[in-house]
Amino acid sequence: MVRGIYTAAMGMLTDFTKLDTVSNNLANVNTTGYRKDLPTFATYAERMIYAKEFQKMRPIGNLEHGVVLDRVYNDVEQGMIQESGNSLDFAIEGEGFFALETPGGGIFYSRAGNFKINQQNQLVNADGLAVLDENGNYIYLTEDFQVDRGGYIKDPAGNIITRLGIYTFANPSTLQKVGYTLYQPTQESGQPIPAENFRIMQGYIELSNVNAVREMIKMIEAQRHFEFNQRVVVTEDQMLAKLMDQVASLR
Questions:
Q1: Are 104 and 167 found together in one domain?
Q2: DSSP for 134-190?
């Protein structure tokens, strides 16, 4: 009975995690370049222990004690591309991320291409982070320009000024999310490499890839599952109390 309480309680904690993730996804349904979180779960640590001890025999009929959060992946599905009419907006169709430099020199990667030009005529993102070209240099724009599908920035005469730095990763779903639309590499994602299979669309933005209807369904499912586990805990507690009363009456 006690095991049943613990298992149901762990199920409730898992449901809390699901609800938090879904709530965060729904909160960013209108965030440019946002990619939804996908939580994955694994059985409790005992399974991990046995997985490492290959020589140790596992008894038949062993019961798991529930599941725990394993990790949160990034959904790499393309978001809808929408025309904005702003020449400083760029959408990546296909693979890749824009490269952005922080004031401290760190590099982040993002799908959000709603850019602007600061007082130094430097191309920056909505938060003021510098957009980098393919050589890792800042991009300065002092006149009218156009960006072709390959990411080449050209002046009115058609001369190439520079090219946007577009990078991809061996496993982009395992990038570490920083905030809502920024990412940094991890050991699993691999280091950034120049992207090839992409098109740049000037005057467009990539919307969030969150499907509000699907997320609402997930939220309802998690709420129902939480309520079920809650009833299990109450039932197990009542049965345990009844058992204790019966044991006490035998004395």
A1: yes
A2: TTS-B-B--S--EE-TT-EEE-TTS-EEEEB-EEE-SSGGGPEEETTTEEE--TTT-
Domains of the chain: total: 2
| pLDDT tens, residue order, the chain (251 aa) | 566 676 777 777 788 888 999 999 999 999 999 999 998 877 655 555 555 554 555 555 555 566 777 788 999 999 999 999 999 999 999 999 999 999 999 999 999 999 999 999 999 999 999 999 999 999 999 878 999 999 999 999 899 999 999 999 999 999 999 999 999 999 999 999 999 999 999 999 999 999 999 999 989 988 887 787 777 777 776 677 666 666 666 66
- 156 and 43 within one domain: no
Q: Give the range of the structural domain holding residue 121, as residue numbers without chain letter.
A: 81-206
